[in-house]
Specification:
Strand content: under 5%
Shape: rod-shaped
Number of domains: 2
Distance between the termini: 71 Å
Structural class: mainly alpha
Order of helices and strands: EEHHHHH
Length: 158
C-alpha cells in the first residue's frame, strides 16, 4: 500500500483513504469516484427520460397508425371490389369490420386529441357509407363512386 500526500495539509496518507485522517479533506481518488458516480447517475436519468419520451410517442403513433392502417385496409378492399377480386358481400363484411375497429378505439383517440377523434369518426362514417352503398340491392355501385370513397379516405389521412 503506497502513501500519498494530502492536497490540503501535506501529511502522508494511504492511497486507499477516502479522506485525510488529519484534516478531513476528500482525496483525489474519492473526488474521481464521486465524479464517475455523478456521470453514471446523469446517464441513467437521460436514458430513463428518453425511454419515457419514446414510449409516449410510440403510443401516439400507434393510435395514428390505427387510423392509417384502417384507411389503407378500406382502400384495398374497395380496390379489390373494383377489380372484381371480391364480391360486394365480402367487401361489406370487411368494411364493417374496419368500421367497428375504429369505433372500438374511438374513446382512446378522443382522449388523446379531439381533432384526431373527429377524423376517426369521419373515416368510420365514410367506410360505413361505402359498405351501405355496396350492400344496397337497389343500386349498382360503379367505379366512379368507389373512386370517390377512396379519395375521401385518402383526404382524411393526409
Amino acid at each position: 500500500m503506497a502513501l500519498i500526500k494530502c492536497e490540503e495539509c501535506g501529511r502522508e496518507i494511504s492511497e486507499e483513504a477516502r479522506t485525510c485522517p488529519n484534516c478531513g479533506v476528500k482525496t483525489a481518488k474519492t473526488k474521481k469516484q464521486n465524479k464517475t458516480i455523478s456521470k453514471v447517475v446523469i446517464m441513467v436519468l437521460i436514458i430513463v427520460t428518453l425511454i419515457a419520451i419514446i414510449g409516449i410517442n410510440t403510443n401516439n403513433a400507434k393510435k395514428k397508425d390505427l387510423m392509417y392502417q384502417c384507411s389503407i385496409e378500406a382502400i384495398n378492399i374497395l380496390e379489390s371490389y373494383k377489380e372484381k377480386r371480391i364480391d360486394a358481400k365480402q367487401a361489406v363484411k370487411e368494411l364493417k369490420s374496419i368500421k367497428y375497429k375504429l369505433e372500438e378505439h374511438a374513446e382512446e383517440i378522443r382522449e388523446e386529441n379531439e381533432d384526431k377523434s373527429f377524423k376517426s369518426k369521419y373515416l368510420a362514417s365514410i367506410i360505413d357509407g361505402a359498405a351501405i352503398s355496396l350492400d344496397s340491392s337497389f343500386k349498382i355501385v360503379d367505379n366512379i363512386e368507389i373512386n370517390e370513397f377512396i379519395q375521401e379516405i385518402k383526404d382524411i389521412v393526409k
